[in-house]
């Protein structure tokens, strides 16, 4: 197992290299880079992307003499100032050199500073991380704690009224978009048109630092209840049905019939024999569930509940072409995702020690 883990760890290097290379290459062809963003801010011209709509006077300003022809809105700015901007953002070097320098820095976990926020990328991530950890961790935990027992129960009660109405309920929950459910929760329970039970925004109250330890815990859970519910709603259906179908497949196998014929109780058969085999496929889906909630599904939820997390940070950085944040978070997220994949394989072995990945590869 040690050799397999080592190979997987070594495989992270070319995988991350490929991810960074593809995204870096794509960025070279995207208009409205950091220099254009800086020019737009200096001139107070609003959104830099208006210059790419074609046709009007803004498009006509895209070209100017003195070396400004490469930048939208650079008309009237001295070439020396444009060259200074390029140097500040590192665009005075060829793309290959910039890419190599970026990888060398990332290997030392030096992600540089934000172009427009005057703060290091690491500090920004540390600042936003609690929100994303809250949504990702609690949503994934709740989804598994509810869906696995429910899926097992549905497999045991397959075809009964319980199976039918619970299937209808979770499919209906899956069909509701997360952002729509979040708005519904706000309207119902956050002072919209009905009850003022939960806070409207934020992760903690303004007086959080003055609260007792128990009060801080209560305040934290009071604030995260609605966002976590909104993040979790769509995860129940997939995980519950996956668990149910996995258990149904195992229950029909010959070793289950043999165990029952030996006089073992149904509980012993279910949790002593079926559970270990049936849970393998559920565990295989853990990285996708966690990473999906942690990174992918948080932007809209963070926006609706006024939570300043990694989802909003990545979106705002992409819009502003703040490349140190974009590539820094991409590198960190990619690394975490690959490590979680290895953790998933280790969980396979914990659940079923008979699995040997080294023999499978041999």
UniProtKB/TrEMBL annotation:
List UniProt keywords, sorted A-Z: Cell inner membrane, Cell membrane, Membrane, Transmembrane, Transmembrane helix, Transport
Segments traversing the membrane? 9-30, 129-150, 171-195, 220-243, 278-305, 325-351
Location relative to the cell: Cell inner membrane; Cell membrane
SUPFAM superfamilies, sorted: MetI-like
Q: Which InterPro entries match?
A: MetI-like (IPR000515), MetI-like_sf (IPR035906)
Predominant location category: membrane
**BP-aspect Gene Ontology terms:** microcin transport; transmembrane transport
> Which gene name belongs to this protein?
yejB
GO cellular component labels: plasma membrane
Q: Name one Pfam family in it.
A: BPD_transp_1
Q: List the source organism.
A: Sulfitobacter pontiacus
What is the name of this protein? Inner membrane ABC transporter permease protein YejB
